[in-house]
Amino acid sequence: MSERTAIREKHDGALDDRGNVRLWLRLLTCTTVIEKRLKRRFADQYGITLPRFDVMAALDRHPEGMTMGQLSQALLVSNGNVTGVVQTLLRDRYLSIAPSPTDGRASIVRLTPLGQECFSGLAEAHHEWVDMMLAGLTRDQRTTLFNLLGALKDSLAADNGKEQA
After folding, report:
1. Shortest CA distance to 112 belongs to which of 53, 47, 56, 43?
2. Phi, psi torsion values for 162, nearest 5 degrees
3. Distance (Å, rounded) from C-alpha 25 to C-alpha 162?
4. What is the C-alpha to C-alpha distance for residues 96 and 125, in angstroms, rounded to an integer?
């Protein structure tokens, strides 16, 4: 049996009367570890950042293209954050930009053939890495976790707007 390096949490321990906080910290730890590993692998193996991959992924799902506003909404980030990433991808010829045929104030961003080819390789590697990181879970465990996280999303949506002042 191989030894594994334990991943520490901010507050290791079992669920107790502070169970909700510990649960949230465990979710945060898992998300942070996965994100850091993906960032490092993209940088080391492809010289690309995770935000660039995210922009390319969004555009891959919308081959007709997207406005900058649609792109920022899809990625849940500000227009300013998207602009810098898009400019870099334009410079590298992975994206093209053209005026919108329906709105003279907007521009449509699309993947170029070079961008599509690049993204195809990135997406394949991304899938392999995520598969490797989740390989310790059975199919049933992944399904259960997916469903439980869906229930958590529903709970968060129901709580929207109930923040205390």
Report:
1. 56
2. -95, 15
3. 21
4. 24
CB atoms < 10 A from the CB of 59, how many?
25
* 3-class state of residue 95 by DSSP: strand
Number of residues that make up the chain: 165
Which tens digit of pLDDT belongs to each residue from 72-120? 999 998 888 899 999 999 999 999 999 988 888 889 999 999 999 999 9
- Contact, 100 vs 67, CB < 8 A? yes
Nearest-angstrom CA–CA distance, 49 and 43: 6
Q: What are the structure tokens assigned to 50, written together?
A: 């995770």
- From residue 103, alpha-carbon distances to 67, 82, 106, 130 in Å are 10, 20, 6, 39
| Widest distance between CA atoms in the chain | 63
Burial (Cβ within 10 Å: 0-12, 13-18, ≥19) of residue 92 = middle
Please give the structure tokens belonging to residue 89: 């991808």
